[in-house]
Amino acid sequence: MDRICILKNPVQKYAWGSYTAIPELLGEQPDPDAPVAELWMGAHPKAPSMVKGTGGWDSLVKLIEEHPEEILGNRAASKFHNRLPYLFKVLAAAKPLSLQVHPSLSQAREGFRRENDLGIPLDAPHRNYKDDNHKPECICAMTPFWALNGFRKVPEILSLEAKIHVIALDHLLHKLRDQPDSEGLKAFFHGLMTLAPDVKKQVTKEAVFKARDHADNNPVYHWMVALADEYPGDIGIYSPLFLNLIQLQPGEAMYLPAGELHAYLEGVGIELMANSDNVLRGGLTPKHVDVEELLSVLNFEERNVRILSPEPDSMGEATYSGRVKEFVL
Fold it and tell me: What are the phi and psi torsion angles at 181 (to 5°)?
């Protein structure tokens, strides 16, 4: 491996993807019947990049296994056990993604081992842990990019809810008022997620009806309505009320550590993460939702989201300040 090689990178055709953004980036004709959500560049076993060699195309996973120090360098090969430590994506969201969280490294290792011991196939739809790695990530906007990231301050949540007040949630809101901290947030969120299906349907219908009156003046209520249009009756439509609503401008980025509840809503961005596909979902999806496992890994601390701008260096590059050992954008 003493030369630069061409990569052929897999795409993921999820229903929430854009029909045009990634095909246009690749110089391909869009398929009107196939939205393209993600372009993966890396060595994750689920969808590794292919490398063009003299004898055809080989998996990047296979080549790194055969030439770890040549491809990764001695230091990275030793530090990350001969594995590429990051996964690089282009993400194109025409519709909102699921409400989700990623586990820490210890949580991922324990969960992956536990599900292996239970004999759950890696491709089983109810499997939570697809590998034994954590998935901290950084998203950098290529277009205006809307997202939810981390719990709001409790006074903000109560103020936003008051404008569309739903009486059926009073018992949960009283808990939050009485205990305006991480434990109160946990009790509120757990209560919301475990409402009976008929109650979820009732409260979401009422909340969205009231949110429409404010949707033109406040993006929080606009996104509640938009989420309800995509996922009617899903309790996740409440998420703009209790999570920080962010709009990144092109070139801005934000970091998502393990344990932070988040959702990408709309836009095209570069996503750089540890080499993992572990996702625990809480709503806004037809896929498997495991509320108890989600609660076990969530961070319920209120937080303000730090928007990252590129910081130029003396080498003519610009970087976004990183917090993990696996990658720097």
Answer: -145, -165
- List the catalytic residue out of 114, 281, 306, 323: 281
pLDDT in tens, 184-214: 999 999 999 999 999 999 999 999 999 999 9
Strands 253-256 and 50-53: unpaired
Asked if 281 is an active-site residue, the reply is yes
Name the pTM for this structure. 0.92
Nearest partner of 99 among 251, 227, 248, 249, judged by Cα: 227
Structure tokens at 328: 């720097």
Distance between CA atoms of 300 and 242, rounded to whole angstroms?
A: 11
- pLDDT tens-place string over residues 240-299: 999 999 999 999 999 999 899 999 999 999 999 998 889 999 989 888 888 889 999 999
Q: Which residues lie below 8 Å from residue 91, measured CB to CB, with a gap of 6+? A: 37, 38, 139, 264, 268, 269, 270, 271
CA dist list (Å): 155 to 158, 173, 194, 235: 5, 11, 23, 21
Question: Which tokens sit at 156?
Answer: 């903000």
pLDDT score at 1: 66
* The two three-digit tokens of residue 242, written as one number: 């209790």
Per DSSP, what are the bridge partners of residue 266? 146
CB atoms within 10 A of CB 166: 18
Do the Cβ atoms of 133 and 108 come closer than 8 Å? yes
| CB contact at 8 A, 274 and 109 | no
